[in-house]
What we know:
alpha+beta
Amino acid sequence: MTRHPAPAGPSGFSQPDHYPGLLDSNAAAQMLAAAGDVSLVLDSAGTILDIAVAERDLVVLGFGTWAGRDWRDTVTRDSLPKIDEMLADAIAGRPARWRQVNQTTDNGEVPVRYLAMALGKDGRVVAIGRDMRAQAATQQRLIQAQQSLERDYIRLRQVEARYRLLFDMGREAVLVIDAATRRIREANVAAHRLVDAKPGALVDQPATMLVEAADRERLVAYLGAAAVAVTPPTEVLMLRKGIGEGRFVATLFRQERAALLLLRIEPTAVGAQVSDESLPLRDVVDALPDAFVLADADMRVLTANASFLELAELPVLDRMTGGALGEWLGRPGIDLEVIETQLREHGTVRNVATIMRGSSGGEEEVELSGVAVPGTDGSMHFGFTIRTLARRVVDTAQPGREVPRSVEQLTELVGRMSLKEIVRESTDLIERLCIEAALAHTSDNRASAAEILGVSRQSLYSKLHRHGLGSLTSEPQ
């Protein structure tokens, strides 16, 4: 029978009477003071008889002035039960354990972790405390990092969902092929249907299985040429099972340091075309909760779904078809030109913050992703998916609502406010940043911060109130 040893518990000195033996008062006081950042000697009622502070920051915060006060008067209300429990346990001789309390100071709360023990048999108690501000700041940064990762993860899932929808619902056969191994990594529904393959059967198969045996060497040579070509070449090959000829167009791209080929296959025979009835793409796109709009090379609307019409505040598509997309999307003369340039240079844009303007004067902040698709006749079309940001926590500054908190938010005001108003907002931003830097430099000591900034203390309190910085409970009357 297997025996599991009991877990080891706390262990003290085995011969405390001999080792370390009796200590004189000076040695005992030095040991208690060195054991923590702050050490309190209290009577049985909780009154602070003496205090030793090892950290200079705590001295500046006023910890050394607590002698003669009740320990309960120096902590926040939620810490009072912890004080009573620590004193009761120490007096009763129960094992001590660390408890965190929040000490109140003129510059805010300071978290301190205490261990209370009985000091002799006269009812006195010693409480050894350790400053937890550094640990609290580290924990806060960890929480912020976790939240940032969670937001990034959600955003990636949304992008992947949009990509998968467009990839699988497209009428054109599209495959992603590893340029090194010539194996198929992904294939959409149209590609499986074009070569008469079961759903998912093409993944991880050699690309040569797409064509007849006589054209396999030509396909391998074509993929090799496409991997080094500046412009996508075109090759006509016979599809497998005698389905007919297909026009192959391959474009090289890189992902995670791997070279991949985006292969598009367009059947040349009429009988090989994919049936429109089998892919109700228009119905699916029109029912999407996110807005979708398709524009031509001149950024004029060709078609849009119901969600886009709702954002544009139009009842029917006919009132929009042929109109300039800039009438509804983007800040006037700013966003669409930049987006169009990015699309022509890079082919895609992702998560661009902009606005939608309704025909009735409404305005809504949105997030846009777009793609540029070249046609077989050399023309260009632009497709956009648009998602509203009304239900999210918006970081960009809104005119008349609050002062911008960063330079990036100031740039978001271009096109919404006049230059004079933006300059006034930037002045408030600089003032806020300087005050925050001064408070951080002085560990939230407002008197020192006012001296560094060259303003009176009353003026600093006024600015703190205007910018909503810190607690004003300690403001002098």
